[in-house]
């Protein structure tokens, strides 16, 4: 039997504030299986995004760190990596490769001075070692897969030339560019209007069915949870206080 895509045990993430360690996440346990979507819900400040940043090793360096716990990820080659024990260089090989991430606001996660195609092609070149031409072709194919019309033209455009929904589709294409085993979606629909939210949720479900990846869906939108989640974990004050299907 395959190991879970993601297994978190006893996670405690702390921030150093005014000379004291303040726990933003404590005693957190979470498991995500292949093809499963787990929604992490809770009010603002409950620790949802800190959990996501802990997984990908992007806690603020000077004040934040993982004090305790284990984060085990099943990679594409089916080996299991303990993320808390990886050095920065090894973590960079995991981020964008075995773990993809979709952020809340695409205008801040996309670089305004590079075309959409260049930004999708970059992780393909870095992690998969493909040539610029092959990576550019893959970027166009990915834009088509996420439902962007005329993908060849859109790949040559800049973020400000796309609508909000199309920008979010582009960030999803970027997150999936290296075929990750785990996709972290950190409030990916919050900045979008209701009709576009529904389209993005349908797109994530369709792509998951095609690829078999696990999804950690971070949100406070219970309507989105009802639409997409297989299981729900409720966070409050840095802890998971309730979970279930």
Features of this protein?
245 residues, alpha/beta, single chain, 36% helix, four-stranded antiparallel sheet
Shape category: globular
Ends distance: 22 Å
Question: What is the N-to-C succession of helices and strands?
Answer: EEEHEEHEHHHHHEHEHEE
Which class do the helix and strand fractions yield?
A: alpha/beta
Strands in their spatial order, largest beta sheet: 6-7-8-3-9-10
Strand share of the residues? Answer: 25-35%
Uncertain spans, ≥5 residues at pLDDT below 50?
none
Rounded average pLDDT: 92
Q: Quick one: biggest sheet?
A: 6 strands, mixed
Give me the number of helical elements: 9
Whole-angstrom Rg:
18 Å
Q: Say how many strands there are.
A: 10
Helix fraction, binned, reads 25-40%
What's the gist of this structure?
The protein is α/β, with parallel strands linked by helices and 245 residues long. The protein has a domain at 109-177. The protein has helices at residues 48-55, 88-94, 106-109, 116-128, 132-145, 151-155, 164-175, 194-211, 222-228, and strands spanning 6-17, 20-32, 37-41, 64-74, 80-82, 99-102, 182-186, 214-219, 231-236, 239-244.
């Amino acid at each position: 039997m395959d190991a879970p895509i993601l297994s978190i045990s006893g996670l405690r993430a702390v921030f150093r504030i005014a000379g004291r360690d303040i726990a933003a996440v404590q005693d957190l346990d979470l498991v995500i299986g292949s093809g499963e979507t787990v929604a992490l819900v809770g009010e603002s400040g409950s620790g949802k995004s800190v959990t996501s940043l802990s997984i990908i090793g992007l806690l603020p360096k000077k004040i934040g760190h993982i004090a305790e716990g284990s984060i085990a990820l099943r990679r594409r080659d089916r080996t299991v990596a303990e993320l808390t024990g990886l050095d920065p260089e090894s973590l960079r090989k995991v981020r964008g490769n075995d773990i993809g991430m979709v952020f809340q606001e695409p205008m801040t996660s996309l670089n305004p001075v590079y075309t959409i195609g260049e930004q999708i092609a970059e992780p393909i070149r870095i992690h998969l070692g493909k040539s610029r031409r092959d990576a550019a072709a893959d970027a166009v194919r990915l834009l088509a897969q996420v439902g962007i019309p005329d993908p060849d033209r859109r790949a040559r455009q800049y973020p400000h030339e796309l609508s909000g929904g199309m920008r979010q589709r582009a960030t999803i294409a970027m997150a999936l560019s290296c075929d990750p085993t785990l996709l972290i979606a950190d409030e990916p629909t919050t900045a979008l209007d209701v009709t576009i939210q529904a389209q993005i949720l349908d797109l994530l479900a369709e792509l998951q069915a095609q690829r078999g990846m696990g999804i950690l869906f971070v949100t406070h939108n219970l309507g989105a949870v009802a639409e997409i989640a297989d299981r729900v974990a409720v966070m409050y004050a840095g802890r998971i206080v309730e979970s279930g299907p």
